[in-house]
Amino acid sequence: MSGAQGTSTVRGGRPKQGEPVVGRALRLLGVFSDRRRALTLTEMARLADIPTPTASRLIVQLMEWGALERLDDGRYVIGVRLWEVASLSPRGHGVREIALPFLEDLFEVTRHHVLLAVRDNEEVLLIERLSSREAPEAIYRAGGRAPLRYTAVGLVLLAWADQQFQEIVLKSPPEDDPGMIHMPEGQLRRTLSDIRRTGVAMLRRTEPLVLSVASPVFNAEGSVVAALSVVVPDGSTPPNVLAPPVRAAARGVSRSLGYQAQPSSRTWMTQPPAR
């Protein structure tokens, strides 16, 4: 009914009536990504679907708090205050702080990329990456995201997710990325089963040509809270050489988190998907 009170939306891309201010502010912050690190007011308003005058007022408040900063050319970037607050996250910085000595040891052994990641909904969130100058091209940065089913750390986190969540990911359409190797649903199910049995995941990427080997990190309750991995040029190091130090590092982090592992004689790893 035109002009009626309580209408959920109005024309012109305006926000829902009654939407909390904090919701609009978070939408403005959410438009930033790896590919959109600096944006103009107009771009932010359009991407967040918020009228420009409203976005302008919110941006001023976000800048006053420190969530946004303005560059000399007038574009906006994420403010350092957000990093300060995010560092308090126990699932991010807390795990990272405990894991860092083990990541550094693994880095000294491999001299390539060493990653630590947690699951955030249907994506991997990378909370740490150690790299050398000799390491292959970096695919993901600390703070970056990646699909669960196309990364070794993601497969580990998916393998220990609840069955209902697994079904959602298993039936999701494939990502459009030429470097990713798509596994059919049946193969992916077998891979996840093997990862749970062996405690190691392995995945190859074709662009760049790299091999990733990952293992789970458990907390005191026995839940998988993170995954760590090494990423090396494919063919540079046999997977069976990489698996033991990766597992050892993951177990070290798990013990530091209070996890007490059950004895197991199974120490081998999954076979890689066909290229």
Query: In CATH, what is the homologous superfamily of the largest domain?
Result: GAF domain
Task: Write down the oligomeric state.
Answer: single chain
Bulk shape: globular
**Major sheet summary line:** 6 strands, antiparallel
Q: How helical, in percent, are the residues?
A: 25-40%
Q: What string, H for helix and E for strand, traces the elements in order?
A: HHHEEHHEEEHHHEEEH
Report the CATH architecture of the largest domain. 2-Layer Sandwich
Structural class: alpha+beta
What do we call the CATH topology of the largest domain?
Beta-Lactamase
CATH class of the largest domain: Alpha Beta
Q: Give the strand order of the largest sheet, numbering strands 1, 2, ... along the chain.
A: 5-4-3-8-7-6
Radius of gyration: 21 Å
Low-confidence stretches: 1-15, 265-275
**Number of DSSP helical runs:** 9
Mean pLDDT: 82
